[in-house]
Amino acid sequence: MSETLAYTRQEMMAIATGREIRDGELAIFGVGLSMLAGYFAQACHAPNVRSITEGGVFGATPVGGLPWGIECNRISSNAVSFTNAIDALGFLVASGRCDVGVIGAAQVDKFGNVNTTGIWGHEIGERYAAPKTRLTGAGGANDIASGARRFVIMATHEKKRFVDQVEYVSSPGYLDGGDARARHGFIGGGPSAIITTLGILRPHPQTKEFELAGWFAFSNIDEIRANTGWELKISPDAGPVPEPAEAELAALRKVDETGMLRKK
Q: What is the rounded CA–CA span in Å between residue 214 and residue 41?
């Protein structure tokens, strides 16, 4: 990490995710860090991004800090339109019109499948049993993962979260790899990246298994492998991820002016 430019791991993750969003795209953000990444992109390098939340708030910019939710006054007060989740998820996303989405993950596997439903600690089997730990649920993430042209996953990089196979698929990635998404008829293209607190993973073009594509200045290959629950391959093009520029940090902190998500 630069000695003159201090930033947190959460900030690096949000900036790296925001860099995945292109100007002019129709983009849908989940709550929390997903919103921070999305509205950072809008404030920094993608001023013409057409933002939408899962609740149907379209074309807004945050007012007075990062929104607490998908219909918070901070995000709805200056919206171009204020509709509902049916329009956002059932019309724009499900029809394949949404260019990119950003979602979080409590658990993610080597093919980019996401679990936000529960942790069982064993195979579920044919008969349902309550999980040991109940998670928040998919919300609109399943719709985004199924219908967006591509989506980005954000997750804290820990071995308990990065597993060989998720216990429950709340939001589909590439299922069991290869052409599985095409065989199952998904409209959306699948996850293009997993951005973590340590680096960036991207899917192999053929197998769709996620490989290490880049590491942050404060991390390294060994640390990332040690915190991954499968035998992580290294992309031939892998390398260090550029640190945040001063302008990027300024844009990020303008969005998160209350410091709500500025964690170590």
A: 20
